[in-house]
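Exam prep: given the inputs below (a chain plus adenosine-2'-monophosphate), describe the expected output before reading on.
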Amino acid sequence: MPASALMNVMIGAARKAGRSLARDFGEVEHLQVSVKGPANFVTAADLRAEEIIFAELSRARPGYGFLMEERGEIKGPDGTHRWIVDPLDGTTNFLHSIPIFAISIALERDGELVAGLIYNPVMNETFTAEKGQGAFLNDKRIRVAARTELATSVIGTGIPHSGRPGHERFLGEVETVMGTSAGVRRTGSAALDLAWTAAGRFDGFWENNLHPWDMAAGIVMVKEAGGYVTDTNGKDKIFETGGIVAGNETIHLKLLKLLKAANASAASPAKAG
Ligand code: 2AM
Ligand code: CA
Ligand code: CA
Ligand code: CA
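Solution:
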């Protein structure tokens, strides 16, 4: 299917920023790095990529607002459209020359996510989705995996660094999911976790304490690939809570129940005997 005018704008911005990231990826030892918090780095590569995406999207769609990881919220005269952008998701991988990172761009219209793009320039993988149009990897239609048993499922997740909120809770959850599934994977890029779930590589994904720019494009992607995405209570307050659970209808539901059980047993006092 030929990409829409909107998707071509998003692809154009991502490819240009991707060339900048690919150049920096070859020279990581020379990158300027600053520390924003515990295990939270920002490099010159993040900033350069964000600058390119901001310039390209502003030129193509003047007036749209932005929510970007490094620049924050930028209101535009157009009150209905907002780009949600992570210029480099997986900065820690990037700094270690691990080729698992991505650019994530989503468009929100009247508060509803209508398009998403996740681009890994090293693997040359462009995941795209528009509301009602399905999800694609490069030019190929993608769908969530069909598996319905957790025992044979591979589940993606992200680990909150010990200095971040949710670390203790995560340890209980991951122990439960590891004991129930065929395996847990942690890529270091929430955007790619969601894209890989949309493509059926992961059967499911969950993480806590994420930001809208980590998830926005991936939410559209998973839904358009036929999957289910909610917060950890099964509701739609994903951005408000920072928690996300994704998968096909069955795995999504089973994951929700499993995480709930893991947290209930962690919260209850130690049993006698
Ligand atoms: P980043 O690389 O854009 O920072 C991995 O579990 C996810 O957590 C990635 O999407 C990563 O995005 C994000 N992340 C890394 N460090 C973080 C921090 N200190 N606070 C919140 N999110 C973080
Ligand atoms: Ca970051
Ligand atoms: Ca991120
Ligand atoms: Ca980032």
